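Our collaborator T.R. sent over the components below with a one-line note: 'Predict the complex.' Nothing else. No constraints on interfaces, no templates requested, no preferences about which chain binds where. So this is a plain run: every listed entity goes in together, and whatever single assembly comes back becomes the starting point for the next discussion.
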Amino acid sequence: MWYLCVFFHRLLEYRKAEFESLAGLFEGHSGATALEWRLPEDHHPDSPFHFVNLPSEEMARDIAGRSILVKGIYELWGEGRSFEELEEAINSYPDDRKLPYLAPGTTFKITVESFGKAISSRDQSDRFQKLAFIPFKGKVNLRNPGHRFCLMDNDDYGDSNGLPPVLQRRIFFGREVGASDRKILQTYQLKSRKYLGPTAMDAEMAFLMANQAQVKPGKLVYDPFVGTGSILIAAAHFGAMTMGADIDIRVVRDGRGPDCNVWSNFKQYGLPMPISLLRADNNLPPWRSGLKEVFDAIICDPPYGVRAGGRKSGGRKLLKGVIGPYTVPDDKRTDHIPSTAPYSLVECVHDLLDLAAKMLVMGGRLVFFYPVLREEDSPDPTFPEHPCFELITTCEQILSYRYSRVLLTMVKVAPYTEDIELAAKLQHIEFKENHLKWLEDGNLHSAVFSPADIQINGTGEKFSSKPKYRGKYV
Amino acid sequence: MRLLTHNMLSSNIKGVTNGFPLRIEVEKVVEKEVDFNVDFLRNMFAKIEWKALAEASRTMGYSELPDDAESSMLDSDEFLRKFHHALLELHLEEGALVCPETGRKFPVNKGIPNMLLHEDEV
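Returned assembly:
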């Protein structure tokens, strides 16, 4: 059956992706789910209004209740360009679909909304009057109604407010089947969180990532760049068992004291503690060799060197070849703090895909952010590929004039074979031997922070292309 | 560190061929209650190395796990409770994990195993 789906006007590329991931979750289907979508007449593709074909009302309710970007899902009783057209449409909608919700003894509430502008209370009651032809026999209950109805009257709101243009007035009237609970975003908002790092994932995005990963109770979710745990918190909210690793031991072990650390973040929200937190290097993961297919999902925001750079084992000078391998004296081993080297994005993503291919169950999902430069004449970005994974969705979020991050959702469709493992090992050695080359190839930081135009001074010499102050960009 | 984590970790020092299981050096064990989830346990049973778990739990002072286990035992509630307790509720708060081949100690402080390698072990 077709339903009217109304989205929040945010993160446009994430809306259908989240919706379809959740449809898959409730159908018990981990691969890509392609639902049938249709735009209302005269509507811009970025409009918050979409029709979607769903197998059941229960499914619609489940999706809306779990979704972050769905405002509401409605059984459409009628639509039109004017109230006359709307009345005609509602009158011709089948009685057996309407009467059970209008019967005596029921309670109901009607809200009036308009996308892109506010409606005064006088205009609202005006519109209520226009619905008088619908034979409501139940009682109004604004606090806790049995049935909710919504009148959405969308008219031209001008073109200077950054919203998709409206070509023609369109009025929808429908019965609410499900609505999202955005209150969780307030509960989990970062400013209320005790222990934060500079790149903590904001609550809305963390919950979207958990939905892309189809997290549900009893599943094991891993974040190899756990930081302060902001992604795992969303996964734990949806009932998953969580595990996290980080190369920075101060973050993962110490935090800012006994009451302000990763554990306390989970405690703050009454969530079950992570099953495991450890200090480990994604470049040399400490998992035993026979271990595979243990995680149901891997969700992470890899360090891609724009806001925070990644680190891996092996000293900087060592990998540059400046010095020979450093031998730690035996009496210093216990408290020795190993130096680390910068970790290029290409290598980091290679390691992540290899780890995920091995450690995810079949049908498990890998959800992570991948940065792209936004150059005007650049071709469509290419995304990492792996023989074990099918890329299901790519959702862009623009971060600055220069670059954006794309949330990639992949599903494991083929088992991890010995050939794949061998190829990954050879690539690992290549990264190690040609450390500097790979580091320069994937240097996103300089591309993002170099000046916009080449400036010429009086003598015709170029200014140094190195930005002097980058604090405000970080 | 829970024993589930211990069961997944190995010493990955260069040249070490069998770094599993890591020997546990106990300084402080704490017990933390975890919600009981049968599906999760059944799932994990197939993935873990039983002998390493049974031995590790004994090192941690819990000797209720049998030396061998097979999947038919998952039908017993009593077995599941013991398995759950050993796998998820025993915590190594302070101590170390010791590489079986080289004797290198990976310290565990505040419940966090530090698996990072030194420069000459990479």
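Summary for T.R.: The two ends of chain B are 24 Å apart (CA to CA).
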